[in-house]
Structures are given as structure tokens and as C-alpha cells.
Amino acid sequence: MALTDLKIRRAKAGEKPYKLFDSNGLYIHVQPNGSKLWRWKYQYAKKERLLSYGPYPLVSLAEAREKQMAGRKLLLDGKDPSVQRKLDRITAETAANNTFGLVAAEYIQNLEAKGSAPATITKTKWMLEKLAAPIANRPVGEISAIELLDLLKRIERSGRRETARRLRGVMGSVFRLAVATLRAETDPTMPIKDALTPPIVKGRPALTDEKEFGKLLCAIDEYDGWPTISAAIKFQILTCVRPGEVRGATRSEINLVEQVWHIPAERMKMRRPHDVPLSRQAIEVLNNVWLLSEEAELVFPSIRSNRRPLSENAFNSVLRRIGYTKDEVTAHGFRVTASTIMNERGFDPDVIEAALAHQDRNSIRRTYNRAKYWEPRVELMQNWADLLDEFRALN
Fold first, then answer.
1. Which pLDDT score is estimated for 198?
2. Does 2.40.50 match the CATH number of domain 100-180?
3. What is the set of active-site residues?
4. Which residues partner with 39 through β-bridges?
5. Residue 131 and residue 34: Cα distance in Å, rounded?
6. Phi, psi (degrees; rounded to nearest 5) at 284
7. How does residue 371 score in pLDDT terms, banded at 50, 70 and 90?
8. Alpha-carbon torsion 243, 244, 245, 247, what sign?
9. How does pLDDT run across 82-107, given as a tens digit for each residue?
10. Among candidate residues 197, 191, 193, 100, the one with its CA nearest the CA of residue 145
11. For residue 181, what are the contacts with CB-CB under 8 A and spacing of at least 6?
12. What is the dihedral sign for C-alpha 290, 291, 295, 296?
């Protein structure tokens, strides 16, 4: 006779365990301590098997029968319910351990292992941990394109179009890692590639008029603040490199005898080493600034500690103090100034590109061009330094 809830509730514990049978192998096991546990005995491949469904009344009679019915359907399909339960558990555990946040953390570790720039890692980590926080605990294989579009559109509506665009790209890298490691089937950022509003592209604020740039150079010369900062700005302008590359410059990178600055790959934006010819004026800046911090390894250390570089905002702070707004000029804009003026003056565009480290991605051509353009670059850097003196003389 089939079980009833009343019969199960009235079942008393005995000295030994005993069984109350329902039907088709389903029964409840009454323990001496009074607990009542659901069991289902079945046969698969001519062998007796046993499944546990949990305790009564947490699992009701109706729920136990539903579980048994589901198991019988699996038997009809030729599947072992015990094996299927293990597979379901493994799938659930795998999904729980393969959240977007965990794959994102693995992606960041890969960036660190490849030697990506610290600034790139910091920015990527901020986007994935802060901006993508709403999907951090979601199984990476279950996240949909519409879910991502909603997240990105909210960022876009806040006025951060470029941030939304960059976040889509970074999240796409995480999903592609998940696909490559068999934790997701597709990259859901691809269908929404053209769904975001393009950012308004603004060039770096820069002075390209030679006389106006000469006024700026004179103002930097007359700056009466910490001399290391003004020296660093002059050195950046003379060498046509990025502000961060100047701030991190060390004495061991510079060879005054050969008049060259060897910037290692890990400090370059494109992760390739870059050699910079040093003009007479650039060497003069170095000779003057080294007297200020003879025991420091950094060429342009912070005023607070000779072990720390100048802050990221140090250059632009000086520009604001001498009267230039952020819409007029920035430290990053000095490269735009140099490129514009030298191109207008008729210097070889290929040599200018090499001087700015805009190198060919093809490794063979890059090596060839590096050798081919070295002497012209030496000449170009000296011509550029001499031009800067001429611009000063215009004022």
C-alpha cells in the first residue's frame, strides 16, 4: 500500500532502522533517532542502485515522488540517475566557480604575467571590478548581450561614452578568455559592438604656433618652483617622449658618452624598447638636474622622496601655474606640437614617426627602420632642440 503523510508522521522510531515502502522502489528509512530519510532503490545495467532524496518532512511525500518520477524517465532514456545527479552537481559547481568576476581576475593575472604596463593593469582592474560589478557573480556562460547592453547604456547615459566603449572591449577580452578555456560558448559583447554611441573624439590640447610655443618655453624657463619639475618638462619637450617615460627615467638608462637614452620595453606604451638620441640641450638639462639629487637613481625624483618619481599631474600643474589652461596645452600635447611643427618644416615624416616611437608592428621592418633612421633621428633631435632655442628668441 502506498504511503500517506499521516502514516509517515505516525511512524515511531524503533531500536533498529526500518523501511516504509511507497511504490516503484521508493521508501522512507526510519532511523532509531527518529529521523526519516527518503531512499529510492532501482536497477540500472542489471545492478541494484540507491539514491537518497533527503529527510522528511523537509522533502515532502509529493516531492519525493516527483524526484522518483524524474529518475524513472532518465532510466527510460538509458541514463543512470545516480550518474546524472553527479553530473548535475559538477555542472552547478563549475558554474558557481566560473563567474565573470573570477574569469576577470584570471584575465588580470594574465596581463601581469605578460608584463603589461602598470597603468594598463590598474585601469583594467578598475573597470572590471568597479564598472562591471553588477555581473561579477554571474556565471560567465549565462551572461547575455542584452544584459551587457543595459549595463553599458547606463554608463553611456551618465556622459561617459568613451568609458562605456572601453569597458565593452575589456569585457570582450574576458569573455574570449572564457571561450578559449571552454567556460563559455560565445562572446556576448560582439552583437552589441555597434550599439553604443561613438565618443566625441578630442585631440590633445597643444600649441602649434611657433611664436606661441616659444612664449610657453620662456614661461617654463622662468618658473620658480621645484627645479626638477621644470627640468623634466624641458627634457620631455626636447626628447619628444611621453610624460610617464620621463618621470620614470633612471640614470642607468642614460649613456652620456654615447648621448643616448635607452628606454626599456616595460616602460614604453607599446612594450617595445626605444632609444632616444640626446641633443646638446638635453644633456645640459641632465647635467644640471643631476646635481640636485646625486644619490638618486631616478633622474627626476619627487620633492618628497628621491626614491619616488614625480606625480602624474606634476607637469600639468606647472602648466596651470604659469597661466595655461587644460584646453590650451597639456604635457601629452607636446608630442603633437613637435610632430606638427616638424612636419610643417618639411622634415622626413618617417623619421618623425620613428622619433615618436610610432614604430611599425612588423618586427622585421621595425628592426630595419630602427637601424635605417638612427642617424637621421640623431640629426632631427638636434635640429628640434635648436628650433626650440629659436622659438624662445622670437619673444
1. 80
2. no
3. 242, 269, 332, 335, 358, 368
4. 27, 52
5. 52
6. -65, -40
7. low
8. positive
9. 999 988 887 777 666 789 999 999 99
10. 191
11. 103
12. negative
Whether CATH 1.20.950.20 fits 5-94: no
210-393 CATH fold: hpI Integrase; Chain A (1.10.443)
| CA–CA gap between residue 190 and residue 145 (Å, rounded) | 8
Contact 267, 245 (CB under 8 A): yes
CA torsion through residues 275, 279, 283, 286, sign: negative
Residue type, 41: K
- The grid coordinates of residue 14 equal 524503533
Residue with cell 527510460: 76
Cα–Cα distance list, 134 to 139, 143, 182, 241 (Å): 12, 11, 23, 39
- One-letter amino acid at 12 equals K
Instruction: Locate the DSSP E strands across the chain.
Output: 18-21, 26-30, 36-44, 47-56, 254-255, 260-263, 274-277
Residues of the chain with CATH 1.10.150: 100-180
